[in-house]
TrEMBL record:
This is Fibronectin type III domain-containing protein. InterPro entries: FN3_dom, Ig-like_fold, Pectin_lyas_fold, Pectin_lyase_fold/virulence. The lineage of its organism: Bacteria, Pseudomonadati, Thermodesulfobacteriota, Desulfobacteria, Desulfobacterales. Gene3D superfamilies: Immunoglobulins, Single-stranded right-handed beta-helix, Pectin lyase-like.
Length: 580
């Protein structure tokens, strides 16, 4: 009898899920609608988001019409406890609140301070000058959202995951006001992937706490992948009593451990690029791999200003790059507590202060103009700028640095898109190119606006600049073109690449296309002039595989290196290539 009851219960659950799947709906919210409100179409969308969410059932999607609904439109918040989306059922049956077009919907607030939700997706939404908190959310996905923090003091975060788990925050941006830009507070197994943060303002005499762009507070086993902390070096907009600020501040006395930072970048940052800490009782672990920190950045207190600070945590640093941390009391790496160890390997240091590392195990590093010569066995003192590092994200192909294995490779996207830690592929290297950086035009457009009294047009948002060009041009070299796609035909190949930023285009004299299949590049074609984003190569040998790449030539800076390679093989049986 019990078995029959169990079978009936399972069948009922399967039937309920199947019924729910078949009835999942898309509901519209359109505050500009003055007519009938059914939610079935954009024209008949609910006038408020609250009404739309009330009509949801698990697995439904609410789509919000494009527009700025952040001021003078009541009922357009997502907040505790009566105005939240319905919870989802599974990753295959998530409830969702989405913009009609990514980045084109502004809301006044997203603030769940204690209810919690599971299996919810937020996509394309921009919060306008508020602080976003998701308390107790699990298995949810925040995708291509923007968070502009308010100009307000106190212990506030622009975007906070509060005691959540197995969430993904992907291709999101945080800027403006706030002590923290992104924080994982006492959560576990959360992922921040391809997010960009900029500290614009936080002057808070009533709360002189440390500030950070990516903060992991008491979190366990979380990950930061391909994230960027940038242009956060305007000291006049930071609390003067706060001298422990960090771009990535992961861990603390509350017991954070098992966290991993991969493929991340700091450029023109706060006092410390990477700050790792743990509890006194028992050192936990943190891993930093294939990441970079490029100064100059702010100079703070001695022992708390430089590329890396760690204490009471066992730290592993591999294939990283630290550049221009040698002003005043800045250090390369400093140990500031009683316990903890450091494993340091295959990393690059140029123009850096002292290396003060207790429990140091180091090997095979490259250093130059470094205050401390303690970089371990197999390490070499050579100028990276002359030995394979024209750019911060990778060693030059075929250089000594590349063959030796020094430094980072930050050229491919990490993690299957939107994969959480309980899904396959969440930390797998992919074949997807990271550059040009995703959504960089929208990121630049949005970050041009920030809190009152502060210019959002600064650094990478300057006219004619792009995020990709700004980062790759940090060492003053000609920025390489980034191949996008190619197609082979009968004795021909069509290549296309991303147009370079207007800020550097004026110096270009042309492009060169190479086959890099052998031990040295073979020049196939030279293009004179700057107005190119592709080329049709003719006269190629059918049946031969070409590994093709492109470089740019600048009047003053010379020829760039290359990043991406496209393997293509012409064939007599392939369709004719048409060039539009």
């Amino acid at each position: 009898m019990k078995r029959q009851v169990m079978i009936l219960a399972v069948l009922w659950i399967i039937g309920w899920v199947a019924c729910t799947l078949s009835h999942a709906e898309v509901l519209w919210c359109n505050p500009a609608n003055l007519g009938q409100q059914t939610g079935k179409t954009k024209a008949t969308g609910f006038r408020t988001l609250w009404d739309a969410m009330r009509a949801m059932t698990p697995g439904d999607t609410v789509k919000i019409a494009n527009g700025d609904w952040s001021r003078n439109y009541p009922g357009m918040t997502i907040e505790s406890a009566d105005h939240l989306p319905a919870p989802g059922i599974s990753y295959d049956m998530m409830s969702a609140i989405e913009a009609e077009t990514d980045w084109q919907v502004k809301l006044p607030a997203i603030k769940d301070l204690g209810t919690g939700r599971s299996y919810v997706r937020l996509r394309g939404l921009v919060v306008n000058q508020e602080f976003t908190t998701l308390y107790g959310w699990t298995n949810s996905k925040i995708f291509r959202c923007g968070f502009l923090g308010a100009k307000q003091g106190g212990n506030v975060a622009t975007f906070a995951l509060f005691k959540g788990s197995y969430n993904v925050v992907e291709e999101c941006i945080a800027w403006g006001g706030g002590r923290y830009k992104f924080i994982d507070y006492q959560g576990h197994h959360n992922i921040f992937r391809r997010c960009v943060a900029r500290h614009d303002w936080y002057v808070s005499p009533q709360w002189a706490g440390q500030e950070s762009n990516f903060r992991g507070y008491g979190c366990q086993n979380s990950a930061w992948q391909n994230c960027i902390s940038i242009d956060s070096d305007r000291e006049m907009y930071q609390t003067s009593d706060s001298k422990e600020d960090a771009d990535f501040w992961i861990g603390d006395q509350s017991g954070a451990g098992g966290n991993v930072i991969t493929g991340c970048i700091v450029l023109h940052g706060m006092y410390q690029a990477y700050y790792f800490a743990g509890p006194n009782e028992k050192p936990l672990s943190v891993v930093l791999t294939h990441s970079a920190a490029i100064g100059p950045s702010l100079v703070g207190l001695e022992n708390l200003t430089g590329a890396v600070t760690y204490g009471n945590v066992n730290t592993r640093i591999q294939n990283c790059l630290f550049w221009d941390y040698n002003r005043g009391v800045q250090h390369a790496i400093n140990h500031n507590k009683e316990t903890g160890e450091l494993f340091l390997q295959n990393s690059v240091f140029r123009n850096v202060g002292r290396l003060n590392a207790k429990g140091l195990k180091a090997a095979n590093n490259l250093y130059f103009n470094a205050e401390s010569p303690k970089y371990g066995s197999g390490s070499l003192e050579l100028d990276p700028l002359q030995n394979g590092f024209s750019y911060p994200c990778m060693p030059d192909p075929l250089s000594k640095a590349a063959t030796t294995g020094w430094g980072p490779l930050i050229v491919k996207r990490i993690g299957k898109p939107l994969a959480a830690m309980d899904e396959p592929g969440w930390d797998a290297p992919t074949d997807e190119n990271l550059w040009p950086f995703p959504n960089e035009a929208e990121i630049g457009r949005l970050m041009k606006q920030t809190v009152e009294g502060v210019s959002g047009i600064y650094g990478f948002t300057m006219e004619g600049q792009t995020l990709t060009n700004y980062i790759w041009g940090a060492f003053g070299k000609t920025v390489p073109p980034f191949l996008m796609k190619g197609v082979a035909g009968n004795g021909k190949v069509l290549l296309q690449w991303a147009r370079v930023a207007p800020a550097i285009e004026k110096g270009l004299t042309g492009y060169r296309i190479y086959d890099v299949s052998g031990t040295s590049p073979v020049l196939l074609k030279t293009l004179a002039g700057k107005a190119y984003d592709g080329v049709l190569l003719t006269g190629l040998q059918n049946g031969k595989r070409y590994n093709l790449t492109v470089t740019a030539v600048d009047t003053e800076k010379g020829e760039s290196g290359w990043v991406y390679i496209l393997p293509l093989q012409p064939d007599a049986n392939l369709p004719e290539i048409s060039v539009k």
